[in-house]
Every structure is written in C-alpha cells, then in structure tokens.
Amino acid sequence: MTLLVALIPIVAFGVVLSVVTVPFVALGPGPTFDTLGEVDGKPVVDIEGTEVHPTSGHLNMTTVSQRDGLTLGQALALWMSGREQLVPRDLVYPPDKTKDEIDEANNTDFRKSEDSAEYAALLYLKYPLTVTVKSVNEDGPSAGKLEDGDAIEYVNGKPVTNLDEFQALIKETKPGDTVVLDYRRKNGDLGAATITMGKHPDRDQGFLGIGVLDAPWAPFTVDFNLANIGGPSAGLMFSLAVVDKLTTGDLNDGKFVAGTGTITGDGEVGPIGGITHKMLAAKDAGATIFLVPAENCEEAKSANEDGLELVRVETLDQAVAALKTLSAGGERPHC
Q1: Cβ(241)–Cβ(225) below 8 Å
Q2: What's this model's pTM, rounded to 2 decimal places?
Q3: Lon proteolytic domain spans which residues (predicted)?
C-alpha cells in the first residue's frame, strides 16, 4: 500500500509531463544550406544563360528551428539541454493571426529576399539599371505579352531609362489606347509587345496590368531552389553565392564560411533574429568563419562560440571585401 500510495503522485506527474502542453515555443539551431551546393539534385543558386565559374568551400546560410505544441516534459527537456530557448508563443505566433497567415508572410519575405539578393549581386557586378517588369497580372492587358524580368527599353518608340520616364509616358495614355513596348528578355531575344490599355477603377490613365521597378538587369536568369525556408535572413548569403559563381576565383578561398543577414536591393545588410542559434548551427556544420550583420554583433559576441571567427558586415561590398582577405591575408572587420 505504501508503494502504491507513493507511486500515485509520480504517475500523476508523469501524465502531466506527457500530456499538458505549454504556451511556449522552443527556438534552436536549424538546418544550414550551402548556397554553393545542391539540394534535391538542383543547385541552390541556379544561374542559366551565362558562364558560371567553378567554386569550392562553403557559403552556408543558417536558420532557426521552431518547435510548437510542446508538452511540459518536452519543454523542460529542451530547456535543460542548453541548446534551446523557450519564448512565449504569442511572440512567435501573434494571437490576432493564424499560423497559416504567419507562415505565408514568412514565405513572402523569403521570396522578396531572393529578389533583393539577385538585385544586390547584379548591382555589385555593375549591371545597368533598367525599367524591369516585376509582375504581370494574370488577367491584365499585358498577360501573355510581357514576362517577369523583361527590361522595357522603349514606349511607343521613345526610350526610357528609369521608372520616372516610363511612368510619365504611361500617364499620357487612356483606356483603349494602343502602346508598343520594346523589351529585352532574359535568355531570349529583343521583342516588341503591342498592348491595348485597360481601365483601372482608381485611375483615369491607361492600365497595363504590370508591376515595374528600377533594377539592375542581366540577360541571364538567377533562380533559388530552397523551399519551406521562411523569412528574409538568407539574403546576404544568396548574394554572395551569385557573386562567387559569376566571378573567377574562390570568394571564400575554399574555406567553410557561414552567415546570415537580410539584404536590400542596393546591398545594405540588415539585422536578423536568433543569431546565437544560427552561430551554433554553423559551428556544428563545420564553419570556421561567420558573417554577422553589424547590428547583431553585440548579441553574437555574447554567445562565446570558440573557434568561430565573427566577421562584421554592413553591406555586400564590405562582405565581399572581407572574404577576399582570406586569400590575401588582410585584416577583416570583427565584432
């Protein structure tokens, strides 16, 4: 009877540990991906339509893992491991949004980071700015005539070199007018699209049904083959991979470099979350050098990851310059 009575609270506590969930999410080191390598048989950074130079070593992007729906026992075990951080669930999944909405927002940020990474790399490599088609409405007047990535050079025979010139000419049109847009297509030829302008409910001018922006343009395509990786923090490493593949020599001197950081189209590197988790993931993968956004430096230093050199970066230009010192033996900016 004494044994049975003693076992009752132990069993009850075991049930609580295994059944009761807690309002916390565990954050920890996530998978890393070599942006110079392949995933599922495809290059992570796939460039077609121009010469691609051989690369070596690693330029790994890093991620943070998230574990939701934890039982009390799982939460305690992860916390005691010292590798995981427990944070209130509302900080990761705000109660006013569904999990699907948050995941979709993260995926949208990731797709935007891919575009920014391409633009930043092409700008670094001195490709010219053009009026570039960013999107084409499926049921708009330009559907089937223009494609994402087309560079528009003329509107009705008048040259356009920037977005302001393009918009000024489009503002002169009315619904029903016909315009001819001369364009260059990636991995293709010069073309001309004759488009009958549509009507937009909020504008008097003609409507093309496209999104355009000033962006550096190259005649080849750059595709990123990573799926189910949310958020914008891979931007810097994607840009570095594009630069490495389009230039001679090894940007990383054949070494194992990892890093993180958002990037804008003009090459500014921004801060990210979970820097200490990403550093641990990089070290576990074998990295010896880690590129840290300048605004994350203080937090990165607090991790005390021995054997991982922390290189401070604020721009893509600075990141490339820092990596070039690996072979030249120069001094790198450190956190």
Answers
A1: no
A2: 0.88
A3: 228-326
Distances (CA, A) of 134 to 44, 106, 146, 213, 299: 22, 20, 10, 7, 36
Residue type, position 180, single letter = V
Query: What's the confidence (pLDDT) of residue 18?
Result: 52
Residue of 233, 239, 245, 255 with catalytic role? 233
Cross-strand pairs, 131: 152, 214
Q: Which of 94-98, 169-173, 188-192 has the highest mean pLDDT?
A: 169-173
Q: Of 93, 51, 49, which Cα lies nearest the Cα of 68? A: 93
CB 309 within 8 A of CB 325: no
How far apart, in Å, are the Cα atoms of 173 and each of 38, 62, 214? 47, 48, 21
The tokens for 193 are 């699209």
Which pair of tokens denotes residue 219?
A: 């005649």
Q: Cα torsion at 265, 266, 268, 269 (round to 10°)?
A: 40
126 flagged as catalytic: no
Distance CA 145, CA 182 (A): 11
Closest of 70, 68, 112, 102 to residue 238, by C-alpha = 112
**10-55 residue pLDDT tens:** 554 444 445 557 788 888 899 999 999 999 999 999 999 999 999 9
pLDDT in tens, 203-213: 889 999 999 99
Residue 116 annotated as catalytic: no
Number of H helices, E strands in the chain: 9, 22
Name the catalytic one among 186, 245, 255, 278: 278
288 phi, psi to nearest 5 deg: -115, -15
Rounded CA gap, 29 and 275, in Å?
9
